[in-house]
Structures are given as structure tokens and as C-alpha cells.
Amino acid sequence: MRGITLSYFLQRLGIFFLTIWIAGTVIWIIPHLAPGDPAAAIVSRMSSQGGTVENSDKIIAGFKERFGLNDSLPVQYIRYLGNIVHLDFGYSMANFPASVSDIIGLALPWTLGLLSIAAIIYFLLGNFLGAIMAWDRTPRLVKWLIPVGLIFTSLPSILSALFLAYVFAFLLNWFPLEFAYDANIQPGLTPQFIGSVIQHGILPAMSIILVSFGAWTIGMRGMMITVEGEDYMHLARAKGLNPLYMLYRYSIRNAILPQITAFAITIGTLVSGQLLVEYVFSYQGMGLVIATAILNQDYPVIEGASFILIFMTALAVLILDLIYPLIDPRISYGSR
Amino acid sequence: MANIVGPQQGTVESPPKRWPTAKRMGRFNRWDTPWLNSRLIAGLFIITLILLLGVLGRLFWDTKLAFTGSSPQFLPPVGFTDSLTGNVGTWEHPLGTEASGRDMLALLIVGAPNTFLVGVIASAVGEGVGIILGFSAGYLGGKVDAVIRVLADVSITIPSLLVLIVIQSIFRQVELTTIALLISLFAWPQPTRHIRAQVLSMRESGYVQMAKVSGASTFDIMFREIMPNLIPYLFASFIGNAASAILNAVTLEVLGLGPQRVPTLGGVISYAIQGSALLANMWWWWGFPTLVLAIMFIGLLLVNLGFDEIANPRMRQSSV
Fold first, then answer.
1. What would the pLDDT profile of A136-153 be if each residue is shown by its tens digit?
2. pTM for this one?
3. How far apart are CA A52 and CA A46, in angstroms?
């Protein structure tokens, strides 16, 4: 049968919760395994700066209560899980009245926007290049040029970000070097604002695309070669079908399925790669929030922002898993 | 019993004339082994070069210059003039110095091997765990397989970097090996999955059946019979894993969560970003560590592709 069965859905949902639970537990357990009490260390670090931090006693009290330093470990663990379920990460230490969720709420849309646009572009571009690399009618020049572009494959995105920022923003001054939009423009649905957002987004997106598409090109090329040997390809050729029609309907549509599965696995790496790109360009997303929080030693923000990103990744994988059976009609799950 | 189909490894003095393809490809030339493919050699050459920079550099260059304040600040590399300060590069600091007076060449000599080491340790630990889990899951099957598979599938989708960031932001002061071990916590799922798939495909092959019939123990079959066949594959996976471990390490370093006492490539970039090196046009400050990193990653990629070519003969005819 086609589509999603209940058992498949429940299984994927189970994996979704398991992912979040394992990530949350690792975050909690490792610092507790280490010698010394992490919460006490943070509180003492804060106390040592107490003279300069406003409301520090209130924060420390909240912190002590939040960490429940006097409770037993299992009680602390269960309280921690409870806070996670409520997405309650307390208050920012650097910007006190702001809660962590407020800060995340402002930054998350920027990250999701940049990330999804970059991901769609590099996935399509990478697979397209891989497909025409394996296609026998591609001009030789193109086949020779694509591997040159693959040099950037698997480089860290920090390298491409610094390189692009220096060349296109600093030296050539084609694009702005910092921020997600021009500070002089009032945010709103005006053409100027949207134009500014796009102009500011091009370099960060390019930094991600440049280092990411190559892996998909190589993977897609391998898949295309496998598909090329299939009997239905010989039949299609014998029938004299239009080569372009064959390329799309016969080769690409079959070769791309494993790529989609692979895509789900790499979302986590993708999120990590973006952190530094945002940091380099001062792009006001989650990466900048985390980087700033690290500089300010703002632990609740680091924890909250990282956890939300982990949650989002697991959610994206879940959605992709649920869409997949709809894309590939040959696969049926459960009742067989 | 399954058919025993495998490559015949023995040397054949004179190939029969009915193998024209084999003759054309020169397969029986002693130097024509897949281990001598150009990518592997080029990649190993690059990696050796970077490690030599670390080893020989210490002999010929004073690494104490990597300490803060050991040199004049804001010196550009030889032959360049800094547009802001008007400083001119000298041979005393051929690659220039950064804002806190550290010599760039000394930083690279000390930092590059450190960054590389973190990746290698993390990857080695992850690969070891991956071998044990992957072989157990693939060969034993059943419930062991189910548990390991779910664990690996789940762990692989967790953005490891974020977990590391949270943990590191509590620890702060850490040694190189601690960071490496933390990173290795997330370096096992990828090899586990891949090795499991490979072992699954080997489990039914003839030589394994043969070993079973001869009464070899499960341990012997797994690690004495199957594993030697996977060696190029394990190397490829080790190198790929090392690259992603280095990537994690560098990211932590750039965010200021790396080791604070010893210089690392990411640590230098971190100071460069905080010191607005981009706006100050101090390209050498971020440029040299990025360049070394880029070369390191290209080297690792080439080695990885090279081992892939050995492990997977179908890739040999291709020319990417």
C-alpha cells in the first residue's frame, strides 16, 4: 500500500523523542560525571562578577533554585527534563529581564530562513551537477569544469565565510559585511527591507552553499551511474525516447531517492556549519546568539539556544521521514 | 553452500591470451596496485607536509614566539605594508604578527598539529567503538542489531556540535585530549552504520561460511576473517571521521571553547574575528590559519577518496 501507516508514524515519532531525550541527557550527564559541581562552578563564576552584574543576587537565587543544588541527582534530572518539555530555560544572564525564550524567538526565524534557502539551493544545485556529470550528452567542457568546483567540498564553512566576506564584502564592497539587514531601514514588508534582507543574506547563504553542494554532486553522480546500468534505461534508449525526458523521468527521479534519505542525516551537520557563518557575518540568528552568549558566559542562553536547535533538527528529520514514503511509491511501510 | 567468488590474489606469471582486458589494463604489473592511486598519494603527501611543518618547524623556528607579547604587534608578512599602521613586514616575522604580539608562523607551527591531533584521537576512539558495535550489529544480528541500529540512527541526527557547545561552556578550561574524547562521543555512529552495512553484505559470503563450518569462533570470524577484508574501507571511514572531528574541534575553537592554554588553528581564527581582523584588513591574521586548514581538509578528502578507490573497485574506472 502507499503512504504512511500508523506503525511507521509511531516508530518515527518514537525516534524523534528518543533523539531529543538522548541529546538532553548527554548535555545533563557529562558535566555531572566530571569532578566538581558544574552548577556551583557557574554560580561561583557569577558571584565573582557579582559587583558588576545587576540583579545578580536574584539571578543566583533563581539559578540555585533552578539547578536545585540541594536535591538528589535523580530529582535534579527529572526537574531538568520537565524544564526542557516546557521549553523553559530561565532568564538570560547578560540581558537580565529578557527570558531565554524571548531571545530565541527573535533569532530563530532568521536562522530557519537562511538555512532552508541555502539547503534547498545546494541540494538542487549539487544533485543537478551530479546528474549532468554522469549524463553522456553533457558537453566535455562542463564535465571538466564541475570537478574544479568540487575543490571546496567538505571544507569547513568558516573558511568559505571568511574568504567570501573578505573578497566580496571588504575588498570589492559588493555586499554588506555585517548584519541581516540595513540598520537604517525600518523592518516591515516594504520592498526596501526585503531587498536589504536579500542583499545581506547572499554572502552567508553562498558560504554554506559553496562548501556543501559538492558532496551531493559526488553522491548523485555515483547513483546516476548505478541507474544507468538498469534494464529500463536500455529499453528507454531502444525505444528512442527524448534524451532530456529520459534524463529527468528515468535517471534523476530514480537516482535522487537515496539522496533524500542522506539529506535527513546531514541536517545536523548543516545546522552546526551555519553557526560560524552567522558569527562571521554578525547575522542575527541562533549562531550569533550562541556565539555572543559564549563570550558573555551566558549559560542559560547557550543551553536554551542549543537545545532549540537540536529540537528543530529532530523535527526536520521527522518531517522528512514522514514525507519520504509519499515521494517513493515503491516503499511501503508496516502492513505488508 | 554459497558460491565462493572472490578476487584471486596469487601472482600469475603469464596471463592467458583470452584475457585481453586484463592485459590492456596491465593488471599484473607489480606497481599497478590500487594502493598506489594518485589521490591517495597526493593526499598523504599533503598531510605529511602539514605534519612536517609542525615537526621541522619546531627545530628551525622559535615556538616561544607563539606566546602573547613575544613580538611587536600588527606586523604584516614580509613584503607587505599594513594600510592602517604603516608597519612594514620583516624577515624576523615572515608571516607577520597579530594584535596581541604573537608570531603567525610560530602559531601555525604549534597550532596545526594540535588541531590535527584532536581530530585523529577523536576519530580513532570513534572508529574503535564503531568497529566493535558495527561488527556486533552486522554479524550477530537480532536484538543486538536492533538496539545498536536505533542508537546509531538516533545519535547520527543529533547535531553533535551543539551538545559539545553546551558541555564545553560549562567546562571552559580543558586539555586537548579532553576535547578529543568529548568529540569522540559523537564520532561512533557514522562508522557503526557503515561497518554494519559492510559486514551484513559479507556475512553470507563463501569464506565466512567456510570458517563457520571449520568451527572458527564468532570472535575469530568477525575480526580475523571479515575485518582484514575491510581494511581499506576502515581507513577510508577513519579519515572521513577525522575530517568531521577536526571540523567540530575547529568550530569549538573558533567559538572560543577550545583549549585556552595551547594555540590551535581555530583559536587563532577566533581571536582574529574578535579582533575585527576583517575590518582592519589584517588578512594574514585569519588568512594563514584558514589556508592551512583548507589544505589539511583537501588532503584528508584526497586520502579518503583514495581509500574509497581501493575499497570500491567500481570507482576505479571513473575520473572525477
1. 777 877 777 777 777 777
2. 0.82
3. 10
B161 CA to chain A: closest CA distance, Å? 6
Sequence-ordered list of residues with C-beta below 8 angstroms from that of A34, at least 6 positions apart, any chain: B171
A51 has a pLDDT exceeding 60: no
Evaluate if residue B37 carries a pLDDT over 50.
yes
Cell numbers for B153, please give them. Answer: 540512527
A111: cell is: 536562522
Q: Is residue B273 a contact partner of residue B293, using CB atoms and an 8 Å limit?
A: no
* Touching B: A residues 35-94, CB under 8 Å: 38, 41-42
**Among candidates A30, A89, A85, which has minimal Cα distance to A63?**
A89
Residue from the list A155, A159, A299 with its beta carbon closest to the beta carbon of B169? A299
Tell me the pLDDT tens digit for each residue of A96-128: 777 888 888 888 888 888 888 999 998 999 888
Tens digits of residue pLDDT in B177-219: 888 998 998 889 989 988 998 888 888 888 888 888 888 888 8
- The answer to whether B165 contacts chain A (CB < 8 Å) is yes
Distance from CA of B315 to the nearest CA of A (A): 9
Exposure string for B39-76, b = 16+ CB within 10 A, e = fewer: bbebbeebbeebeebbeebeeebebebbbeebbeebbb
Q: Which of A189, A191, A122 is nearest to A154 (CA)?
A: A122
Of A184-188, B153-157, B271-275, where does mean pLDDT reach its minimum?
A184-188
- Cβ neighbors of B217 (< 8 A, separation 6 or more) are none
Query: A297 and B256 in contact (C-beta within 8 Å)?
Result: no
DSSP H helices, chain A, are 6-33, 38-48, 56-67, 73-85, 100-134, 140-149, 157-164, 191-228, 231-239, 243-245, 253-281, 286-295, 299-327
Cβ B166 vs Cβ A306: under 8 Å: yes
Among B residues 26-55, those touching chain A with beta carbons less than 8 Å apart: none
d(CA B163, CA A90): 19
Whole-angstrom Cα distance, residue A223 to residue A43? 54
Task: Please provide the DSSP assignment of B162-201 as one string.
Answer: HHHHHHHHHH-S--HHHHHHHHHTTSSHHHHHHHHHHHHH
Predicted ipTM of the assembly = 0.80
What is the C-alpha to C-alpha distance for residues A166 and A240, in angstroms, rounded to an integer? 51
Cβ–Cβ of A310/B185 closer than 8 Å? no
pLDDT tens for B61-94 read 777 777 776 777 667 777 777 776 767 767 777 7
Check if B150 contacts A (Cβ < 8 Å). yes
Neighbour count for residue A194 (Cβ, 10 Å): 13
Quote the CA–CA distance of A227 and B4 in Å, as a whole number: 27
Contact flag B161-A275 (C-beta cutoff 8 Å): yes
Phi-psi sector, A179: left (phi>0), alpha (psi -120 to 50), beta? left
- Judged by CB atoms closer than 8 Å, whether chains meet at B278 and A166 is answered as yes
CA distance B309 to B305: 6
Distance CA A206, CA B195 (A): 34
How far apart are the C-alpha atoms of A69 and A41, rounded to whole Å? Answer: 11
Q: How far is CA B240 from the centre of its chain?
A: 5
